[in-house]
Automatic annotation (TrEMBL):
The chain crosses the membrane at residues 32-53, 60-79, 85-108, 115-135, 155-174, 205-223, 256-274, 280-297. It holds the Pfam family BPD_transp_2. Its main location: membrane. It comes from Actinomadura graeca. InterPro entries: AAA+_ATPase, ABC_AA/LPS_Transport, ABC_transp_permease, ABC_transporter-like_ATP-bd, BCA_ABC_TP_C, LivM-like, P-loop_NTPase. This is Branched-chain amino acid ABC transporter ATP-binding protein/permease.
Length: 580
């Protein structure tokens, strides 16, 4: 996967260069000054883009981070510290980082509105501090001089555009890395991210640190524009208004940050011109934000997704037509499951007991997945199958019993570390970020640089559309397959699949079965399959364990177990157990 979208980069830099040349030449001094404000707001918007747009965290204190940046720059100016404005600007950004991380710490435990309240609380406290203590230089009017050669408004506009562009390029590159992609996954499902070996804590704290740094830079730039700042430049209300703009527009894309910056900077002027109170602008932003929250996606997300979907649909049609020309896919020939024989155990679970209050979801369950095997775990609804997967992969803590992977104990280890050690899982309900392409999702799952040829092979093997196709237009059944492909892409020792055939037709389910039997030999991954589709289980699994009310009622070679009268009785009315 390319870290740089060369076309987008070219267009972005071209537009930035055009703005630098044309705007100072054609705009009046008043509008140049407003244009500087718009770009400085756009930089602060980029900080919202990281934390709000990408990770989906409601942070209401970005202006407080900006104030830290401005304070440091002005303090260093008063002290006439060495290095000059450029170094001070960088130090201002860096000074905001530890504060950002400190504010991010509660985000590891709380989320949503509660976290918004924490960030709002910090913004209020910061407001009180700034109001009680004037910014450096304000008392004795020690102004901050802009650096050469960016002294005039026109030249300073060029400088802020350069800073914005550099940040946009860096954020674009980060967005394509595992860290950046993990932010999208966190936004939709933290447990899905953890199941891919992503450290949720590290990923969130990195987002807070980077967004605080950018906001700090934005604050320093504002100090450079104004020469002196006052607390109202960073008022809590500003954070709220910009937050609403961020939700509405989506500043995690450069065009969104620019639009947000323009809105933020010129709205007061527009309100003035149409003789409406300034607060009315905030109301408009709030309404826009509510509409965006209802759809779950910002305006730039929607525009970009629609564009991507159009070309992806064309690609899917071409691929389908090429497939039809080659002829219909032959019905799978299922090779009978092999006998596990005396292969070494890969995953070994002993005495696994899970209680949810009075409910004993699992009671001393033993299960072994031998190396290179496909093993089934079946049982009626509520038997404890998903709980088994969740406990083994570390999502349910406080269980009794022992979980060993290739002879190593995994108990007391968190889900993302278990995933990194070679234990991957899928969920009954998929929660794949629709903004991602299938390639990007596979890259997250793989947890390593995934060569395109390998990604293509996986997608073709599991019958998914081409890798450029965004998840937003992939149907629910295929998303499950994509989830399985992402788990296998990591080449774990064992993949625990929770009902991957749900939502598939009988023929598709059979095809999936034939693929799963090939997985151990082809990808070196053993499988524990949780399924209600008994035909699939019979055709795929060499061994099967049956749970009922958390107890193992049968375990052994699939044919024998499915013929067991106790198993048939447990399933009576719950699913069809084919006669063996
Ligand atoms: N978080 C939880 N809190 C309380 N009870 C739970 C929780 N998760 C599961 N249970 C209970 O544990 C039991 C086992 O549930 P589990 O979801 O593991 O069953 P299952 O075999 O996967 O069912 P299905 O086939 O419907 O997915 C059920 O009685 C369920 O209500």
């Amino acid at each position: 996967m390319n870290l740089v979208d060369k076309r987008g980069l070219g267009i972005g830099i071209g537009l930035a260069a055009l703005a630098c040349v044309a705007l100072p030449a054609v705009l009046s001094p008043y509008w140049i000054y407003l244009a500087i404000s718009a770009v400085v707001s756009a930089v602060i918007m980029q900080s919202f883009g990281v934390i709000v747009g990408r990770v989906g965290i409601m942070s209401l204190c970005q202006m407080s981070f900006a104030a830290i940046g401005a304070w440091v720059v002005l303090r260093l100016n008063v002290a006439e510290a060495p290095g000059g404005f450029f170094v001070w600007l960088l130090l201002g950004g860096l000074a905001a980082v530890p504060v950002g991380v400190a504010i991010g710490l509660p985000a590891l435990r709380i989320r949503g509105v509660n976290l918004a309240v924490v960030t709002f609380g910090f913004a209020v406290s910061a407001d009180i501090v700034w109001n009680a203590n004037p910014f450096p230089g304000a008392k004795d009017l020690k102004m901050l001089d802009r650096p050469e050669p960016f002294v005039t408004d026109g030249a300073y506009f060029v400088f802020v555009v350069i800073v914005f562009t550099v940040l946009a390029v860096i954020l674009g590159v980060i967005g394509k890395t595992r860290l950046g992609l993990s932010w999208y996954e966190l936004r939709h499902s933290e447990r899905s991210a953890a199941s891919h070996g992503i450290s949720v804590a590290r990923s969130k704290l990195a987002a807070f640190a980077i967004s605080a740094f950018i906001a700090g830079i934005g604050g320093g730039l504002l100090a450079g524009q104004l020469s002196l700042v006052v607390p109202s430049n960073f008022a809590m209300g500003q954070s709220l208004a910009l937050f609403a703009v961020a939700i509405m527009i989506g500043p995690h894309h450069p065009e969104g940050a620019v639009m947000g910056g323009i809105f933020g900077a010129i709205m007061p002027t527009i309100m003035d011109k149409v003789s409406l109170p300034q607060d009315f602008g905030g109301v408009l932003f709030g309404v826009g934000a509510l509409l965006a929250l209802r759809s779950g996606l910002s305006q730039t997300d929607l525009t970009r997704m629609r564009k991507r979907e159009r070309s992806a649909r064309k690609l899917m049609k071409e691929t389908e037509e090429a497939g039809t020309e080659k002829g219909a896919e032959a019905a799978p020939v299922l090779t009978p499951p092999r006998d596990p024989g005396d292969r070494k155990p890969c995953l070994s679970v002993t005495g696994l007991t899970v209680r949810f209050g009075e409910v004993v979801a699992l009671d001393a369950v033993d299960l072994t997945v031998p190396e290179g095997a496909v093993v089934g775990l079946i049982g009626p609804n509520g038997a404890g199958k998903s709980t088994f997967i969740s406990a083994v992969t570390g999502f349910v803590t406080g269980y009794e019993g022992k979980v060993e992977l290739a002879g190593q104990a995994l108990d007391k280890i968190d889900p993302s570390t278990r995933a990194k050690r070679g234990l991957r899982r899928t969920f009954q309900t998929t929660a794949i970020a629709p903004e991602l392409t299938q390639y990007e999702y596979l890259a997250i799952g793989a947890g390593r640089r995934l060569p395109q040829a390998e990604a293509d092979e996986l997608l073709e093997f599991f019958g998914c559309p081409p890798g450029e196709v965004p998840v937003s237009i992939v149907d629910a059944g295929t998303r499950r397959l994509l989830d399985v492909a992402a788990a296998i892409a990591a080449r774990p020792k064992v993949a625990l699949l929770d009902e991957p055939a749900a939502g598939q037709s009988a023929a598709e389910s059979l095809r999936l079965g034939s693929r799963l039997t090939e997985v151990p030999g082809r990808f070196g991954v053993s499988i524990l399959l949780v399924e209600h589709d008994m035909e699939l289980v019979q055709a795929t699994c060499e061994q099967v364990t049956v749970l009922d009310f958390g107890h193992v009622i049968a375990s052994g070679p699939t044919g024998e177990v499915l013929a067991d009268p106790a198993v048939r009785a447990a399933y009576l009315g719950a699913a069809d157990v084919p006669a063996s």
